[in-house]
Design brief:
It is built from 19 helices and 75 strands. By secondary structure, it is α+β, with helices and mostly antiparallel strands. The protein starts with a strand and ends with a strand. Belongs to the filamin family.
Length: about 1200
């Protein structure tokens, strides 16, 4: 089976390949829906209390938090609150809880005691420090102050400290409503002094609130005047919802909408509440980074256990960079018992910057829609369609055709599509959107989920169509298309196979994005199956079955082994497989001849149960014939078989190779004749052992063919010429082949042969063929010059050639095999007669030679060979000598060598490699007189351990070292320690002796000449300790890794040579441009061996300090010193807002530049209130380490003094 996978990227052009993966990247699908939450503010009226006693308290629900307003009087509520706190129980018993009807309006409901959140995280009992009521009151108070002190506010009164008392005269409430509504309120008493004036102002403010569409039930001016904190808090929360969070819908609670929005903007944080999820400050820091990227700290680096610190840092960053007021204290935000409404009020300030950033992204994605807000621009649904199609190309292709005023139909198309393709549920309906009842926060939440969403894989949306799925015809190409444009991301897998399991070859190509065209050509009849899967799931109607049938699928069985050239009257059989063509058909075959007038012959048929048909026929006429096959009277050209019919009696060999023996690569030619001219039907081969080589005609002239064979191996070849496996007349025949190059000469060829002495050449001929070697002399008669004889050796595959020269002279000899020279043949030899060399001179003076005295004699040559020189070798009892041979005239040679051993020496003299008469000669050599040698030099009396010492030996003769006559030994007197000695022959009768002692002490130097001491030997030597640089050490402040060295200040260190032996200290410091610092050495006055070293550099830069003891580096040397220019505080500069007046809890910075101030130490000190803050210094840029940024965060007010010094000196402005 053949299978393929197709890969196409979700964005951009797809890759085209036969086997690939079509895949879109997956992310977790977003789900906007959470459990439905009730409206967070509920009012209980007196009538409700009478109708249903369940409405007298709060219901503690984990999944549905509620806020309850009690209608009890202020005194009663305070008493109950006191009792609840004293008993440490919930404010309202759970058994008396109630759940308000879902139709209650958020703006109609106010709070009685406090606006409570009885969710999972907030217990009703008091906690350490502030309780949740105090946190809520502080947050609401801060919100009122922030709105009153806003940019568009004209309020000039004092800050609100207590909501219970500061709102009683109505002025603050009137000013607050003017700021929130941007409307002017008139008719109020500007300076209320009596109760009536205050009540008038409060009534006017409440009527204005009611006119703004906020229903007030159960609260009046007297409640505010009397300081009913619960009702006042409920009123403030209603205003926060209306004007801060801007929530008006009742279908989903404000808390639920806020959590959904936070989940959409921070999906990775899994936010589920508005209290404990925010205690460690990390979610808030992440929200800041999302609203304004690049601001804030790395959230992953924050320690979740440092909750208050993280919250304080996040609140400060938001205030500085986002201008968000710090309504909540860090200790309150990090408290797990903080109430939801306080956190919700603070987080609502992030909606506006998040909105602007999201709006900027939307404008970039769909600039053609000109979106300016998340309100009216989205009502008709066209902006949603354009944005979704921009994020996921092709998902909403018809958004351009949407009618602008047809909101319900447009959103009815978009919302189900988004849910099906992206898994996103909108928190609003098409009807609500059409009526304008959807707040901007819900729209922003939906767009955030679309922005971070991914397409889902939808196998049921894959569509397949095309003619290639209906039927197919053998040999005809067809195709079908697979449309995945609506199927989302996924992998397309295709597996195509026949019923019998054989694979189907096909190609795939993506002509349009997401539309794949599959093309194939059927090769057999039957049923083809296509398995198509999208993301490992079969698409609808998969697998697809396609029937294939065609008579063109009839095939010849084993056609490759069917003969094409046949003999006359040869019975032939041909088997056909007709199963792919079906059972409804008729087969017919006939054998036709190319000759005109010859009738065709019908083939006999025999059918078998397996669908195979056998055709039997017999050609009767030589020539060309063709078997034509028909199916249902339709000829099948692809089944036609052509034959060449041959009669082998019409062929014969008329000319065979003439040579008896051929060499390798030599052409062996023969000719073949044909009576009918059909020579191409012949098969010609050359058979060699178990190998067979084909032979072809080099040319054909008429009915005669000329064939040529080139053998490559030596041996016997059998040539066969056959017609349809039958040999023709004259075949087979054989030829012998030899290869002289495969002969191998054993040993090396001689340059000289001795007159009248036989010499045998041995040649391996086993790989060259069958035959005998011959000896030739190209330009002369061999029989007059040499006696030759050839015989086979005992091994059988080698032969020996014996040559006996009869005349002196230079000759060229050849050794041939079947007429061909073997390797290295021909070659040149010289016949010599060593008996004609005469030796005379001191070589016959036996026992009179002396060691070191040259021996001379001469050799006289009588023969005619001028270029041949005698060879002389001399050897003693253990040594061999090189004799000097010089030429006197063309027949006299003078020989000289100097013996250096006592004893018998042997002198060998050869001529042409043969010993001359009486060779080898023997002579005796007497001893050497050691008194002729002497030694001198300082190295005979004293030396330093570890330092080479020398002296000189005077001998008046050279070559005494090579012959072992001159020997020097040095040994320690008290210890078995030997010394290394080296002797050099100066070639002038003197010898230079160098030695090295490793330990101090007394030594004896023995100088032996011919085994005897020379005068003065053995010499007494005293070795003193030598220098040991490894035992030296150096230290000091200038050598410290972080030493700050300056020009003009002392740069000193110490060097200890204690225990380092005798030596000299040398110190150098090389700086820029090869300049050297001045060095001052103070030698030790006592036995401590410690030197004081001072350096005085003239230029700043890097210096290479070298400290050597007797020419060798000590440990730590060489050492690199960095010398800086002197400090210049006037070049320092400090600037920035941090050097001016600051504000508590607002970080400030300033910059200190020391780039041109030379080397020095920077000190920044703070004088003022103790433990108020610290100054942090770090490089402003990694590429500029000399520019530092100082940062501090003052926590206490006061006067502070910042001092900046460079190298203990004030910088300018300090």
């Amino acid at each position: 089976m053949a299978s393929a996978v197709w890969k196409v990227s979700n964005v951009g052009r797809p890759r085209k390949a036969n086997r690939a993966v079509y895949e879109r990247p997956q992310k977790p699908a977003a789900n906007l829906h959470a459990p439905a939450l009730r409206s967070p503010l509920i009012l209980v009226t007196p009538d409700d209390e009478e109708d249903d006693d369940r409405n007298c308290g709060l219901r503690a629900s984990r999944s549905t938090p509620h806020f309850v307003f009690s209608t009890e009087t202020t005194a009663e509520s305070r008493k109950k609150s006191t009792r609840a706190q004293n008993s440490q129980t919930s404010l309202v018993p759970p058994s008396t809880a109630f759940e308000p009807p879902s139709s209650a309006s958020t703006s109609d409901l106010l709070h009685g005691a406090f606006v409570e959140n009885l969710g999972d995280e907030i217990p009703s009992s008091p906690v350490m420090g502030k309780n949740w009521k105090q946190m809520q009151e502080a947050t609401f108070t801060n919100w009122v102050n922030e709105r009153l002190k806003g940019k568009q506010s004209s309020y000039t009164g004092p800050r609100i400290q207590d909501l219970r008392n500061d709102l009683c005269d109505g002025l603050v409430l009137i000013r607050l409503m003017e700021v929130l509504t941007k409307k002017k309120i008139t008719g109020y008493v500007k300076q209320p002094r009596i109760t009536v004036h205050k009540m008038v102002n409060l009534d006017l403010a409440l009527r204005f609130i009611a006119d703004e569409g906020i229903k007030l039930i159960g609260i009046g001016s007297h409640n505010i005047f009397e300081g009913n904190l619960g009702l006042i808090m409920g009123l403030v929360w209603t205003l926060i919802q209306k004007y801060q969070i801007r929530m008006t819908s009742t279908r989903v609670s404000t808390k639920a909408v806020m959590i959904h929005w936070l989940q959409s903007i921070l999906p990775e944080w899994k936010i589920s509440n508005l209290n404990t999820d925010w205690n460690d400050g990390r979610c808030l820091m992440a929200l800041i980074g999302e609203v304004k990227p690049g601001v804030g700290h790395d959230v992953r680096a924050l320690d979740p256990t440092k909750r208050r610190k993280n919250c304080a840092r996040a609140l400060a960053i938001a205030a500085n960079h986002l201008k968000i007021p710090q309504l909540i204290a860090p200790e309150d935000l990090s408290n797990p018992h903080i109430d939801d409404l306080s956190v919700m009020t603070y987080l609502s300030y992030y909606c506006e910057p998040a909105k602007q950033r999201l709006l900027k992204w939307v404008k970039r994605m769909i600039p053609q829609m000109r979106v300016t807000s998340f309100g009216a621009d989205w009502v008709d649904g066209r902006a949603f369609g354009a944005l979704i199609d921009a994020c996921f190309p092709g998902l909403v292709p018809g958004w351009h055709q949407m009618e602008p005023g047809n909101t319900k139909e447009n959103m009815a198309q978009i919302l189900p599509l988004v849910k099906r393709s992206l898994g996103i549920d909108a928190d609003f309906t098409a009807v609500e959107l059409a009526r304008g009842q959807v707040e901007e926060l819900k729209v922003m939440t939906f767009i955030n989920y679309v922005r971070h969403g991914i397409l889902l894989s939808l196998p049921n949306e894959v569509a397949v169509s095309g003619p290639g799925l209906q039927k197919a015809v053998i040999g005809k190409e067809t195709h079908f298309e697979i449309d995945t444009t609506q199927a989302g991301p996924g992998k397309l897998f295709i597996d195509a196979y026949y019923e019998n399991g054989l694979k189907v070859t096909f190609t795939i190509r993506e002509r349009v994005t997401g539309v794949i065209t599959l093309t194939y050509t059927p090769e057999m009849c039957g049923v083809m199956n296509f398995d198509i899967l999208w993301s490992d799931t079969p698409i609808p109607r998969s697998p697809f079955s396609v029937p294939v049938s065609d008579s063109q699928m009839i095939r010849i069985v084993d056609f490759e082994h069917h003969p094409r050239a046949v003999q006359v009257n040869q019975s032939l059989e041909l088997f056909l497989d007709t199963r792919p063509a079906g059972t409804n058909g008729r087969l017919f075959a006939k054998l036709e001849y190319k000759q005109k007038g010859v009738e065709s012959t019908e083939a006999q048929q025999m059918s078998f149960p397996d669908g195979t048909v056998k055709l039997s026929y017999k050609p009767t006429i030589p020539g060309k014939a063709v078997l034509r096959i028909f199916w249902n009277d339709e000829e099948l050209p692809h089944l036609a078989v052509s034959y060449v019919v041959i009669d082998n009696m019409q062929y014969r060999i008329i000319a065979k190779p003439e040579e008896k023996v051929y060499h390798t690569f030599q052409h062996a030619n023969f000719q073949v004749r044909s009576d009918n001219g059909q020579l191409n039907a012949l098969t010609m081969t050359a058979n060699y052992e178990d190998m067979q080589f084909p032979i072809a005609f080099s040319s054909i002239q008429g009915n005669i063919g000329h064939a040529s064979f080139v053998p490559t191996f030596p041996g016997c070849y059998r040539i066969e010429v056959a017609c349809v496996e039958k040999l023709i007349e004259g075949a087979p025949f054989t030829i012998e082949v030899a290869d002289p190059s495969r002969c191998k000469l054993v040993g090396t060829l001689p340059k000289y042969l001795k007159l009248n002495s036989p010499y045998e050449f041995r040649v391996h001929t086993g790989d060259a063929g069958q035959g005998m070697l011959e000896v030739t002399c190209p330009d002369r008669a061999i029989s007059r010059l040499f006696d030759t004889a050839v015989h086979k050796l005992a091994s059988g595959d080698s032969q020996g050639v014996v040559v006996t020269p009869r005349q002196m002279g230079n000759y060229v000899l050849g050794i041939t095999f079947f007429g061909g020279h073997i390797p290295s043949s021909p070659f040149q030899v010289t016949v010599v007669d060593p008996s004609q060399c005469c030796v005379s001179g001191e070589v016959f003076n036996r026992g009179k030679a002396v060691v070191g005295k040259p021996v001379q004699f001469q050799i006289t040559r009588m023969g005619p060979e001028r270029e041949l020189k005698p060879q002389v070798k001399a050897s003693g009892p253990s040594a061999k000598y090189v004799a000097e041979v010089s030429t006197g005239d063309d027949k006299v040679y003078f020989v000289r060598f100097t013996p250096w051993e006592i004893g018998t020496h042997e002198i060998s003299i050869t001529y042409g490699g043969f010993d001359v008469s009486r060779s080898p000669f023997r002579m005796g050599v007497q001893g050497f007189d050691s008194d002729i040698c002497s030694a001198t030099g300082s190295g005979l009396q004293e030396a330093l351990s570890g330092i080479p010492a020398q002296f000189v030996i005077l001998a008046k003769q050279t070559g005494l070292i090579d012959d072992g006559i001159l020997v020097v030994n040095i040994r320690n007197v008290t210890q078995p320690v030997d010394c290394r000695v080296r002797i050099r022959d100066n070639k002038n009768g003197t010898y230079q002796v160098a030695y090295l002692v490793h330990l101090p002490g007394a030594y004896l130097i023995s100088v032996l000449a011919a085994g005897a001491h020379i005068p003065g030997s053995p010499f007494r030597l005293t070795a003193r300790p030598g220098p040991e640089p490894d035992k030296c050490s150096m230290w000091g402040p200038a050598l410290q890794p972080n030493a700050l060295l300056k020009i003009g200040k002392p740069i000193d260190f110490k060097v200890s040579a204690h225990g380092a032996g005798t030596g000299a200290l040398v110190v150098k410091a090389v700086g820029p441009g090869g300049t050297q610092a001045r060095v001052y050495l103070a030698k030790p006055e006592d036995r401590t061996g410690i030197y004081d070293v001072k350096l005085d550099p003239v230029r700043h830069g890097k210096y290479r300090l070298s400290v050597k003891w007797s020419g060798r580096h000590i440990p730590g040397s060489p050492h690199i010193l960095k010398v800086y220019a002197g400090a210049d505080p006037s070049k320092c500069r400090a600037h920035g807002p941090g050097l001016e007046d600051g504000v508590v809890e607002r970080p400030s910075t300033f910059v200190i530049e020391t780039r041109d101030a030379g080397a020095g130490t920077l000190k920044v000190r703070l004088h003022g209130v103790k433990n108020a803050f610290k100054i942090e210094l770090k490089p402003k840029d990694q590429m500029d380490q000399r520019t530092l940024q100082a940062r501090y965060n003052p926590r206490k007010p006061g006067d502070y003094l910042i001092t900046i010094k460079w190298d203990e000196k004030n910088i300018p402005g300090n």
